[in-house]
Amino acid sequence: MILPIVAYGDPVLKKVGQDIDPDYPKLDELLDNMFETMYNAYGVGLAAPQIGLPIRLFVIDAAPFAEDEDLSEEEQKELIGFKKVFINAKITSEEGDEWAFNEGCLSIPDVREDVFRKSKITIEYLDENFESHVDTYEGLVARVIQHEYDHIDGILFTEKLSSLKKRLIKGRLENISKGKVNVDYKMRFPKQKKKR
After folding, report:
1. 72-113 pLDDT, tens per residue?
2. Which of 22, 74, 85, 195 is the most exposed place for a label (fewest CB within 10 A)?
3. Which residue ranges are tagged as binding site for Fe cation?
């Protein structure tokens, strides 16, 4: 089932997610719905807060990035095969040089900006079977994970921009929060306070 993606301005996007346990209700169905919702919106990652759930869960399928012709064959293979579920994730280290990449977000449509992130991360997480993993990732995979990980910590990529960039996109962000944006996927916009 395709779920509506929560738009910029909704308080759930600012909450730090709660850990979940294996008894979390209908988890398999939720994961299927998250992947379906992400594919429908042409995303490469989707975090639970983006569908209104303040929990530490995100899904990634990095295959669309493999179409970048500037990547080596090895990098393309890694991206094509990278489809994962991350539950109760914790990034334990970020290292390497910071590098810029033009990021966007399904909750912030039509806004893309260069974001600087470290090139290598180590992350502890549980998979969909609640088996424990500690993995190290680099490059684009690391970046997608960092972006989704920020979501479960209540952080949006726009918060990592310079104050000048933030001022330049302020009006566009306000329009998104008011539902004044054209998207070809289902979205849920924050309720507007009625003027007295």
Report:
1. 888 888 888 899 999 999 999 999 999 999 999 999 999 999
2. 195
3. 105, 147, 151
